[in-house]
Design brief:
The chain has 376 residues and is mainly alpha-helical. It contains 17 helices and seven strands. The longest helix is centred in the middle third of the chain and has 18 residues.
Length: 376
């Protein structure tokens, strides 16, 4: 991982916190962790009057499909809850339908699409994240459903601070709560309460993006647990298990990525990942390559080469949909989009001309200056 990644620490040997966290997994007694998980489920189940053991937030992707399969294997009765994505793809729809066919009750919550489009543009222009409303909603909507249906447990996937690198205390945390959401949940400094002050969007239109009150959460005794802190987490393994249960992948790698099995549901994902590249000089290919290197699936040199080849390409398409069509609901053209891109680009990381202007090739791609961390 590059040293530009937020919250990432490199030790004296140049090894990042994500690698160190992964090394510690070999020392974990996973059988004991499983017993801890089932004990927590049993304790919280006594508080539930819903008939469900837990809520599993699901997109239909490989990880949430695996989470539902795992809950069923453990003999639990989960309620699957979907906070709908911004620009749903056809393969995403098929995979979400497939998840239901595993045999699970499922509720879909769809925020007002007119408001969502406005929030997409606000997120893109203010914090450089077109998916800002989706990243808020996937954390708030399942919690609101848990409170309204009296289900005191939410089972999330991996702790991203452990899987991808973050502060040690956060990386070892097994619970997702309001504090974790506000620090690591993708708000990027833009609070939901700010929206009505900077736009004509009413607070009444933002209910689904608002976390329930501490009083409501405390009354229920709600807990959100990271499944990856109780069972060994591996995205590729999750994908293989999901495929064995009907999950569908592409016949080619996803644009801006190096695999065919993730980020399949949202046409806006390519833009989201591209802005990470502009801000920090790495994107989804580097993330996945690093996961593979930690697990011995490729060498570090191979990972660097793949990142050079695939990371950070200009998002002319995502899941086959042209950029112009993705931007159209936001009433935004490609030229205006590029202007926004430039505002969020860390020019210290990319080639510029004598005037300090970013240099793009014929396909609109920037040239990153360095693909390895500096060495002493």
């Amino acid at each position: 991982m590059p040293d530009t990644k937020p919250d990432l620490a490199l030790d004296a040997n140049g090894v990042c916190s994500a690698c160190r966290a992964y090394e510690q997994r070999s020392e974990i007694d996973w059988d004991s962790r499983e017993r801890d998980f089932l004990s927590l489920v049993s304790q919280l189940g006594d508080k539930s009057s819903s008939g469900y053991d837990c809520i599993v937030p699901v997109s239909g992707g490989k990880d949430s499909t695996f989470q539902v399969i795992k809950m069923k294997e453990l003999g639990l009765n989960p309620l699957a809850v979907t906070a709908t994505t911004c620009d749903f793809s056809e393969i995403g729809r098929r995979n979400l339908d497939n998840l239901r066919q595993i045999g699970v009750d499922h509720i879909t919550v769809s925020p007002n699409p007119k408001v969502r489009k406005k929030l997409n543009r606000i997120g893109l222009e203010l914090v450089g994240d077109i998916s800002w409303p989706e990243h808020v909603g996937i954390f708030t909507i399942p919690v609101r459903m848990a409170v309204s249906m009296n289900i005191p447990l939410i089972v999330w996937g991996e702790n991203s601070q452990n899987e991808y690198g973050g502060p040690e205390k956060a990386a070892q945390n097994a619970e997702l709560d309001r504090n974790w959401l506000e620090e690591f949940g993708g708000l990027l400094g833009l609070r939901v309460s700010d929206i009505s002050n900077i736009s004509p969007i009413s607070p009444d239109d933002l209910v689904l993006y608002t976390y329930p009150s501490e009083e409501a959460i405390g009354r229920l005794g709600l807990k959100g647990l990271f499944l990856g802190q109780f069972f060994p987490w591996d995205g590729l393994n999750n994908a293989q298990i999901a495929k064995a249960h009907g999950f569908e992948t592409l016949s080619h790698v996803v644009e801006g990525s190096m695999v065919d099995y993730e980020n399949l549901d949202n046409h806006q994902t390519g833009i989201h990942d591209y802005f990470k590249f502009l801000k920090f000089g790495f994107s989804r290919t580097s993330d996945i390559a690093s996961l593979y290197i930690r697990r011995g699936r490729m060498t570090r040199d191979e990972g660097l080469e793949i990142s050079r080849e695939l990371d950070g390409k200009f998002p002319w398409t995502c899941l086959g949909k042209p950029l112009e069509e993705i931007l159209e609901p936001l009433e935004l053209g490609v030229d205006a989009f590029i202007e926004i891109c430039d505002r969020f680009t860390n020019s210290d990381l990319f080639q510029t001309d004598q005037k300090g202007e970013l240099v793009r090739d014929a396909k609109g791609n920037l040239t990153k200056l360095a693909y390895d961390n500096p060495r002493d």
